[in-house]
Amino acid sequence: MTISSDPSKVTAICFDRINIPNQNKLSVARENGAYKFLSTVLKEFDSDKIISEVKTSGLRGRGGAGFPTGLKWSFVPRNTGKPIYLLCNADEGEPGTFKDRDIMRFDPHLLIEGMIMAGFALGVHDAYIYIRGEFLHEANVLNAAIEEAYAANLLGENILGTNYSLNLTVHRGAGAYVCGEETALIESLEGKPGRPRFKPPFPAVEGFYACPTVVNNVETLATIPAILEFGGAWHAAIGKPNNTGMKIFSVSGHVNKPGNYEVPLGTTLRSLIENQCGGLQHGSVPKAIIPGGSSTPWILAEHYDVPLTYDDIVKAGSFLGSGAIIVMDETADMVALTRRLTHFYAHESCGQCTPCREGTGWVERVMTRVENGSGCEADLTVLKEASEHMAGRTICALADGAAAPVLSLLKHFPDEVRSHLKEKVA
Amino acid sequence: MTTLFINDEEVTVTAGTSILEACRKHGADVPYFCYHPELSVAANCRMCLVEVEGFAKPAASCCTPVSEGMKVRTQSEGLSKDRQMVMEYLLIHHPLDCPVCDQGGACKLQDYTITHGANHGRYAEEKRAVVDHDLGPFVSTCMTRCIHCTRCVRFADEIAGTGDMGILNRSDHMKIDGIVEEALESELSGNLAEICPVGALLDKPSHDVSRPWEVTRHKSTCTQCPQGCDIVIESRGKEVIRIKSDHEGVESWICDRGRYVYDAFRSVHRISQPTIKEGDGSVAVAWDEAFAHAVNILKDKKVGIVFSPYWSVEGLASIRMLKDVAFKDAKVAFDLHRRDMRMFAFEEGFGSSTEDIVEADEVVILGSDLRQRLPILMQMLRKRSNEGKSVSRIGAMHYRTNSELSNDQIIRPRDWHAVIARAMQQLIDQGKPAAGMKEWMAKVTDRHEAGKVLADALLADTCCLLVGEEIRSHVDAASLIFGLDMLMRASGHGEVGRDGRNLIPEGMNAQLLSAVFGDVRVSVGELLDAANDGDIEALLLIGSDPLGDGLFPVEAKRAMGKVPMVQVGAIAGQISVFADVQLPAAAYSEVEGTFINQEGRIRVATQPLKSLGEERALWKIMMRLAQDLGFEAPAVSLDGVREAIAQYIPELKDVWAGKADGGWKVPVKRNRIAEMLPNDIEPAMALDVVSRYSMYREGAWVRASASLAEAGRLHALDDVIVHPDTLAALGLKANDKCTFQTSNGACQFVAGTRDDVSPGVLFVSKRGVAGDLSSETMVNLSKGGA
Question: What is the rounded CA–CA span in Å between residue B601 and residue A41?
């Protein structure tokens, strides 16, 4: 690895080897440092030490919720007599997010190494990567990499001559967005329809096949090898307090150079867009920004200088989420955009909870009417109430995500909605 | 225990209770659709939201466990709005057809729309319509009304055990689907209509018949099987509209047999007025004339009395009272399935309470198709199996249970001795002998390995046996039951308080029947043969139908018409063509009376329906007969009859006086002296006959019901079934015509095959073409037939 042991000089963690060709081949990956530290971890570290390092690192889950990873791992009950499972959430389905895909297709061994270390820390012997169904190429790359890893005794029985054994299996999803929610993912992996479970019990206690289960995002697990090699304190020194480390942002929308950029947490939004993404396509400030994937509320130009940390984005009224930044400049039609998003959520609602099942479809139909110019003033109230009363009232957070764009539209751009009302279709 | 505050009121509940259950227990009203106390939690309707202090969002109370000091609010402005919105969401696609929907007036959705909904909906787009399912004779569907609470899905999975119902598709395309038709395979399918909170699943036989506000509800006891479930009969005037489970009763579910038998109440098969035979038919006459005819037939004759256990305790006791004054030498018989009339070491009835059975370490079903015989007990065992507790079985067929059995052995009825002997050997080997075992075992040459299942279960701390019809109707039943009794006593399951000996009775009131008739009962076969031979000069038939039910159809056919017959009953049945006089007796729903179920639980019915015709309570008919025959009536009031019963079971006095402890149960009769050794008779023929019990066909009441007859047709197996190996050994294959050699001569039938029956056993359907084979215990099978 070329990662610097000096935290101030770190430029990338997960994307450190991303540009090296054929990194998905084990020989190439090993030349570039993959699995270099694994044997030390397996032979010299123990579970407590690993979990303590991860806690020290301040690493927060990169999938969207930002829950401290070390803390999540420490919730797993040991000695229940049941097996413990590690599931990697690679169901990257949040509109706007495309970071995990790059890790998996360009540097699969980084994820595998992270999973071996996490599995070792948690006493896991069976781990699964639940990968989004559409990621066929990535699944093939991962499977080839896993095969090579088995052949090199990096997976399977007695890894690298130690007592530790781990099986790793890739499972492809079947195209449901909601399966990115951890309990729906577990249901789906168990072979059932992907519908979220209510909590408690939490997966850490009763998850996959009612056994203790940890579900971590790809980027989270890919960060583990560097944390263990350079230490939790090293990682904690990157970024901002309580928002430590590097983060990959998937930037899309009206910027000149959309793509994945790994920057330290705390980098300002403006700096990311102007320095990395080549600036906006039109104008000097964006009209609106979705900071963490389509399920997060929008922020406006007044927050263009917000530091990209979990805490600062909350202060700005939204969430860092998965780090999917969608930028809208002055040319964006916010009504059309919202209508398209409502269609997505209506299509993806799993259907079990009343408010989400009926509410998402209702909101989409009203939005369609509004966009077509056949809406009326009362529709604004309907949209607001129908959205507000699905959010936070269902088993999972899909309804919150469905409500966010509609409520943002009504809050920030009511006039734009009203201008649609006036346009009558001929 | 956990203490919390519901609307500022301090409440203490068991730890782990959900907020909703805590609220229900303490009278705080929380609306809900998907929650059901007997089903797993789905938490999908989101109607039961409450506010919890410290929670950022309203919580679904059904899936949130209580915690110490939690402060819950069930009413607030925010919650009212939330509930109003949930109602609006639900009504988006729900048709507004309440005026033509059977659920109207008893519909959660309708009620909550009034109490929680807005006065109009704002949805203006297209509504969803959903294709209906054919769910058989009992459940009609209107799936467009479905609100996706998934109660039916969970019912099919968890209670009926048939599964195969599910939800397809996502978002508002979601629908209840799967192999939904499979649900009608369940003997509990009628409950689907009851658990559906809206009008999506409705009761088919009572569809479009009445409105909920027109009916009167009568608490009653079902007498269709020994379970004696608490039921509520809904009637409009004298007409029974439907039967439902009594939700204040012991179990939430009732079976289809008990629920849908009600069309028999108003069927043409009811005996609604006294009749006398005239030519080939019969004519209705006044009660006095009918009694005069009956007296003519019975007076100073050698009488045979055959009755059914469907009557109330008072009715049954009055039969004995009549016999004691008027027919001292009469033969009395009631059990159509008992061949061995010697005393049983433990008579019919349960030593265990239902809770004991559900909680026991081991439960073994011996020779019973329990799903058909006792559907509600089977449902409880299914729940037990689902929790991972053991339920084993030994019997002549892998009878369908809709649940996993931990061990299921098939044997021939003739193997029972060898099974019990094998179990005895194991107990002796493991240091648990009982006096008498050695002598018993010495009479049995073989040892059958299925006995290991029995012995292993007996070695558990608590073990309950459910001894079924294959043993009860065995020709050597008394010795088998004595053997089982020794096993149970040796392994410590025979003591008071932990008595695991349960002999499944033929019908209700078994404990009373053995107490009142134990000393005079004879076999129905013997009684009918006596009638055939002229040793009996007249028959008094009270509710029983030996032509249609039981193991003596050949004897019944022979005897019928040989002697005059007086029929007292509610249902005419097949046998009625032979009746010279018919006296209509009120049905179990139409009398004040007492009923005892298999475990000895007592129910006293006090809200009877009015009879449709001129029916009278059985005890009144019996007493009037006694009078008209020239004797003083032993009792002239219900209290008088009860006084007489108290001679047999004194504790019942307190029950009637309302002074008894509600938990007191009528004990099962034990016969300590009944030391029966296995008989020495070598089986003379190759195949053992098992007469298959069908819940849709057995019993006069059931056969008078058109909807149960339809179900019987749908559920019927082949009339004659053997294992394919049994046929193959004779060079035969399925559907070949075979000759059956019986003790009554030869007959020819086509034999069907099933893999799940024991080789060496012939299953016959009592009501099928080969029904007469029910009279046999063994047959020989050979190729042949024109």
Answer: 67
Q: Say how far apart CA B646 and CA B638 lie, in whole Å.
A: 12
Number of folded domains in chain B?
5
| 3-class secondary structure, B563 | strand
CB–CB contact A351 B57 (8 Å): no
Contact B172 A357 (CB under 8 A): yes
Q: What tens-digit pLDDT sequence spans chain A (426 residues)?
A: 589 999 999 999 999 999 999 999 999 999 999 999 999 999 999 999 999 999 999 999 999 889 999 999 999 999 899 999 999 999 999 999 999 999 999 999 999 999 999 999 999 999 999 999 999 999 999 999 999 999 999 999 999 999 999 999 999 999 999 999 999 999 999 999 999 999 999 999 999 999 999 999 999 999 999 999 999 999 999 999 999 999 999 999 999 999 999 999 999 999 999 999 999 999 889 999 999 999 999 999 999 999 999 999 999 999 999 999 999 999 999 999 999 999 999 999 999 999 999 999 999 999 999 999 999 999 999 999 999 999 999 999 999 999 999 999 999 999 999 999 875 544
Asked if residue B313 lies in contact with residue B645, where contact means CB atoms within 8 angstroms, the answer is yes
Q: What's the topology of domain A7-237?
A: Rossmann fold (3.40.50)
Q: Are B297 and B580 in contact (CB under 8 A)?
A: yes
Q: Are residue B540 and residue B419 in the same domain, yes or no?
A: no
Confirm whether B632 is domain-assigned.
yes
Show residues of chain A in contact with B172, CB under 8 Å.
346, 349, 351, 357-358, 360-361
Q: How far apart are the first and last CA of chain B?
A: 75
Cis peptide bond N-terminal to A200, omega within 30: yes
In Å, what is the CA distance from B60 to each residue of A145, B289, B367, B784? 44, 68, 46, 69
Q: Is residue B429 part of a domain?
A: yes
Q: Is the domain of B96 the same as that of B178? A: yes
B779 and B702 in a common domain: yes
| B87 shares a domain with B61 | no
Angstrom distances, CA of residue B461 to CA of B491, B498, B765: 9, 10, 39
According to the 3-state scheme, what is the secondary structure of B99-118? Answer: HHCCCCCCCHHHHHHHHHCC
Q: Where are the alpha helices (DSSP H) in B565-632?
A: 618-628
Range of the structural domain that residue B755 is part of:
687-783
Closest CA to B305 of B289, B291, B323: B323
Q: Specify the DSSP class assigned to residue B398.
A: -
Contact flag B86-A347 (C-beta cutoff 8 Å) = no
Tens digits of residue pLDDT in B390-436? 999 999 999 999 999 999 999 999 999 999 999 999 999 999 999 99
Q: Which residues of A touch B46 (CB under 8 A)?
A: 353-355, 393-394
CA-based nearest distance A404→chain B, Å: 16
- Nearest CA to B315 out of B529, B65, B587 is that of B587
- Judged by a CB distance cut-off of 8 A, whether residue A347 touches chain B is yes
Residue to test with chain B: of A342, A348, A353, most B Cβ within 10 A:
A353
Q: For B174, which residue in chain A has the nearest alpha carbon?
A: A351
Strands B390-395 and A324-328: unpaired
Cβ contacts of B49 on chain A, cutoff 8 Å:
393
B-chain residues near A401 (CB < 8 A): none
The helix/strand/coil state of A99 is helix
Q: Do A349 and B85 touch (CB under 8 A)?
A: no
| Torsion B765-B768-B770-B773 (CA) sign | positive
Q: What is the ipTM of this complex?
A: 0.93
First and final C-alpha spacing in chain A: 63
- State which residue of chain B sits closest to A353, comparing Cα positions: B44
Three-class DSSP category at B700: helix
